[in-house]
């Protein structure tokens, strides 16, 4: 069955030695790095990725170099926001932002709860006892916070080294947070300034002067920042390793040798003020580490392609790599084939080659002296901390992290990874409790928590949730079906008519010669499956291609289109992306005809029995009916005059600076099963907002053409929004939409619609359990773990057979819709039953899943706006 390519196939269910430019064989990196704009300070030349070791220590520490500034920050809100953000990395990376996507420090609490919403709690449904992956902070610490500036004599560039010297005097500081420049402590020092003395590795004295700046009058958000930083410092005591923004346990790694992978288990955490309590959210995460080096990838590229340099660049640029010798991660920004490890750079002791440097510094011998070097551009904060603007990496010493597209398309590999990462509820709960126990029993962690008077409850939070009733599914001929405990109604589709059928009379089937028998048998299965669902499919016109090359399909499609077909089915030998993309571009942009792309393997019967394909045939018939304008089922919807809109964004794989925003809207599901879709490219938020407003206008125009009136209500589900973008969406997108709606309705001489705007978030860290198992579909949570500054709720709408089910967060940031929380929750659950690629519920409302499919198709395959002739059909399924 067609699903496109990549991850969009799913149904929504469920990254000190002075140095100078290399010389000799080393030249300035080519490409963009040879033409960089001058920075605010003189750029430091590329240097090897080497940590600054703490004097007196035998090896490098495991943390990132910490950002710092030479000037004291002003006292007040700015101080904590900047100082705490830097201090976050002092204790192993950026702090999590709660249960939302990304893990940065909470700079401010953004209130998105509409002023007219008094209560957000519903009452409908049966009660259920729910646990969540949160622990209560039993008592909010009562400490004050004092800020100090710290100076070192002689001057020490390395922030990590400054922190090491500071840690030698922790007995005099009590609980403290130090970002390399600013010190925050809970007890004021007796003397001002206070001086400490340390010794470096050479035995020279280092004078540390600590000068009082001011007392911090912390706001609620700033206090939460500090609590997050304290927790990160406590987690350091667990001997975890920072990779990216999260902490992982390399000792507990799992080897998947057949795929040259390692899985490192770890944790992502966040402390926030929730409805009644301050809660710690903890989630189990995994980092995929490859055992192959970038040199291994280079060798493979040279063996597989003559144009290996471009192939290698394409594969590794943008990749995050780990250097084992200093346990740091870097992003590869360029490859310099004009340089190699024999190139030299300047140090205070004179020039040294990379080969000599790694041999002397780490006792590492570089074997391939002709390999190119990798270039990593340092982040601004790392540059401020003294790191070179460009860092040189040796492929042989870099390990790739994460998965590439080929790996994601490898079923065996992904299943092997999932076997270890897809934790069931019981195992996940057990690991969360183990994490809590380690924090409370490990001496180093206990000391930090005690110093800061921080006490974490040992038990997961428990509270009452609700289960909404099962939905009634409306089929053709006034037949109905009720979803089962897994919110599935597949069986009812096989023996009942579809809600709305479109007969297929004029269609073509293209296939390569070797697929002739399988194609004929599968078309027979399609006709039998369609008959059972009361859809009439006439015999197609078969076209045997001379081969399976791209141009053979394109030429045949062009010829077919001269006969004005309703649909073209293309049987392809494999999942070749170029062929698939070419077919879709031809039929979505040039000729505007729905297509069904089938892989040879998919239509090959198991054991030679054609009847084994009936399940696949049933799903394909449903897809084809939808692409023609039909609908397999409907829900019982009490509201008339309703337009439901879903919007999502997908980045272009061809142009990294471009994204595509897709909008899919219903045309009053109480009256018909029609949809409207539009997609537009954008490069920034302003373009996105303008295009979004324009596409909403198009959808309203189509609605008015159908009903001779505009919708009374508009429910907008906005997917693809990170928490850091909430303020922009609230201040720009909604404002632009409101202005546009006012203009359109005034022009039509109609009353403005009741309007609700809901941010839909799937990539969250919240997990819900009941009696050690997954919560059933329809579970709603609108208290305890929700946020007081939001009109939000969690909904478990889908069922999973393996692992832990993930709820979806719904944050209603604008509401004149006129429905109470109960009805908003029920309506949202209803909307998860209408995704026609799956006879069950999806993780998000169907219009969001449709928007994702459309944005993915355009961003991954066709890279152009589809023809307007297709905007009334679900051609992208």
TrEMBL record:
Segments forming domain PAZ: 293-402
An example GO BP is: transposable element silencing by piRNA-mediated mRNA destabilization
Q: Where is this region: Disordered?
A: 1-59
* Signal peptide limits: none
Q: Where is the composition biased (Basic residues)?
A: 1-12
The record's section on InterPro entries has: PAZ_dom (IPR003100), PAZ_dom_sf (IPR036085), Piwi (IPR003165), RNaseH-like_sf (IPR012337), RNaseH_sf (IPR036397)
User: Which parts of the sequence belong to the Piwi domain?
Assistant: 567-863
Subcellular localization:
Cytoplasm, Cytoplasmic ribonucleoprotein granule; Cytoplasm, Perinuclear region
User: Record's Gene Ontology CC terms?
Assistant: P granule; perinuclear region of cytoplasm
What's a Gene Ontology MF term here?
Answer: RNA endonuclease activity producing 5'-phosphomonoesters, hydrolytic mechanism
Q: Which CDD domains match?
A: PAZ_piwi_like, Piwi_piwi-like_Euk
What's one Pfam family the UniProt record gives for this protein?
PAZ
Task: Reply yes or no: does the keyword Mitochondrion apply.
Answer: no
> In its keyword annotation, does this UniProt entry include Mitochondrion?
no
Q: Could you tell me the keywords of this UniProt record?
A: Cytoplasm, Developmental protein, Differentiation, Hydrolase, Methylation, Oogenesis, RNA-binding, RNA-mediated gene silencing
Q: Which family does it belong to?
A: Belongs to the argonaute family. Piwi subfamily.
PANTHER family, per database record: EUKARYOTIC TRANSLATION INITIATION FACTOR 2C
The name of this protein is Piwia
């Amino acid at each position: 069955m067609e699903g496109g390519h990549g991850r969009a196939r799913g149904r929504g269910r469920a990254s000190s030695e002075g140095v100078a430019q290399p010389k000799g064989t080393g030249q300035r990196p080519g490409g963009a790095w040879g033409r960089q704009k001058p920075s605010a300070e003189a750029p430091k030349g590329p240097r090897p990725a080497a940590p600054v070791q703490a004097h007196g220590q035998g090896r490098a520490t495991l943390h990132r170099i910490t950002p710092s500034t030479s000037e004291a920050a002003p006292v007040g809100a700015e101080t904590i926001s900047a100082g705490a953000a830097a201090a976050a990395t002092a204790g192993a990376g950026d702090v999590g932002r709660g249960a939302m996507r990304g893990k940065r420090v909470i700079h401010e609490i953004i209130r998105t709860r509409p002023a007219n919403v008094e209560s957000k709690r519903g009452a409908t449904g049966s009660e259920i006892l729910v646990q969540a992956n949160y622990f209560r902070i039993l008592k909010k610490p009562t400490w004050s916070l004092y800020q100090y500036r710290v100076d070192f004599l002689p001057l020490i560039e390395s922030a990590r080294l400054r922190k090491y010297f500071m840690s030698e005097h922790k007995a005099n500081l009590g609980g403290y947070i130090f970002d390399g420049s600013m010190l925050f402590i809970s007890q004021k020092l007796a003397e001002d300034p206070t001086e400490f003395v340390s010794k470096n590795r050479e035995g020279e004295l280092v004078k540390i002067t600590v000068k009082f700046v001011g007392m911090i009058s912390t706001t609620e958000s700033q206090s939460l920042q500090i609590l997050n930083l304290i927790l990160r410092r406590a987690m350091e005591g667990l001997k975890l390793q920072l990779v990216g923004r999260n902490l992982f346990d390399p000792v507990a790694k799992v080897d998947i040798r057949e795929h040259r992978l390692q899985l490192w288990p770890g944790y992502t955490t966040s402390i926030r003020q929730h409805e009644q309590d301050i809660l710690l959210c903890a989630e189990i995460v995994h980092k995929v580490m490859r055992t192959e080096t970038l040199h291994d990838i280079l060798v493979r590229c040279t063996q597989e392609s003559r144009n290996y340099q471009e192939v290698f660049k394409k594969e590794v640029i943008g990749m995050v790599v780990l250097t084992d010798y200093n346990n740091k991660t870097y992003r590869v920004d360029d490859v310099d084939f004009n340089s190699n490890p024999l190139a030299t750079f300047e140090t205070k002791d004179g020039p040294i080659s990379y080969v000599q440097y790694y041999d002397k510094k780490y006792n590492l011998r570089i074997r391939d002296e002709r390999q190119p070097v990798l270039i990593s551009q340092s982040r601004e904060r790392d540059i401020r901390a003294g790191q070179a603007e460009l860092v040189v990496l040796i492929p042989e010493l870099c390990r790739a992290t994460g998965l590439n597209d080929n790996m994601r398309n490898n079923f065996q590999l992904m299943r092997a990874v999932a076997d270890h990462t897809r934790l069931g509820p019981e195992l996940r709960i057990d690991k969360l409790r183990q994490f809590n126990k380690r924090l409370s029993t490990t001496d180093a962690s206990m000391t930090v928590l005690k110093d800061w008077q921080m006490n974490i409850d040992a038990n997961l939070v428990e509270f009452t949730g609700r289960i909404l009733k099962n939905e009634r599914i409306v089929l053709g001929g006034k037949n109905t079906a009720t979803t089962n405990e897994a919110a599935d109604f597949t069986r009812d589709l096989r023996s009942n008519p579809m809600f709305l059928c479109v007969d297929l009379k004029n269609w073509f089937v293209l296939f390569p010669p070797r697929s002739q028998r399988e194609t004929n048998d599968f078309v027979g299965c399609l006709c039998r499956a369609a008959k059972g669902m009361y859809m009439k499919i006439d015999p197609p016109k078969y076209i045997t291609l001379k081969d399976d090359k791209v141009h053979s399909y394109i030429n045949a499609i062009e010829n077919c289109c001269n006969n004005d077909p309703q649909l073209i089915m293309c049987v392809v030998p494999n999942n070749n992306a170029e062929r698939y993309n070419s077919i879709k571009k031809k039929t979505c942009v040039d000729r505007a005809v729905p297509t069904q792309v089938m892989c040879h393997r998919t239509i090959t019967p198991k054991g030679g029995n054609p009847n084994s394909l009936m399940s696949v045939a049933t799903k394909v018939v449903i897809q084809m009916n939808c692409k023609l304008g039909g609908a397999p089922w409907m829900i019982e919807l009490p509201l008339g005059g309703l337009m439901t809109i879903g919007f999502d964004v997908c980045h272009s794989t061809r142009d990294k600076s471009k994204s595509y925003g897709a909008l899919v809207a219903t045309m009053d599901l109480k009256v018909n099963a029609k949809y409207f879709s539009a997609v537009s490219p954008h490069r920034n938020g302003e373009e996105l907002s303008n295009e979004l407003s324009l596409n909403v206008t198009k959808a309203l125009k189509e609605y008015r053409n159908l009903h001779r009136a505009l919708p009374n209500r508009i429910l907008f589900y906005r997917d693809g929004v990170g928490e850091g973008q909430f303020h922009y969406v609230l201040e720009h997108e909604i404002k632009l939409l409101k202005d546009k709606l006012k203009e359109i309705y005034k022009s039509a001489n109609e009353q403005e619609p009741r309007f609700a705007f809901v941010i839909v978030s799937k990539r969250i860290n919240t997990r819900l359990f009941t009696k050690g198992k997954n919560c059933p579909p329809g579970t709603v949570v609108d208290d305890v773990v929700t946020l007081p500054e939001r009109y939000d709720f969690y909904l478990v709408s889908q069922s999973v057979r393996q692992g832990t089910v993930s709820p979806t967060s719904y944050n209603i940031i604008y509401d004149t819709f006129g429905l109470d929380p109960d009805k908003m929750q029920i309506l949202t659950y209803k909307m998860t039953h209408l995704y026609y690629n799956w006879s069950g519920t999806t993780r998000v409302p169907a219009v969001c899943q449709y928007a994702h499919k459309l944005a993915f198709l355009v961003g991954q395959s066709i890279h152009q706006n589809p023809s307007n002739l297709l905007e009334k059909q679900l051609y992208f399924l």
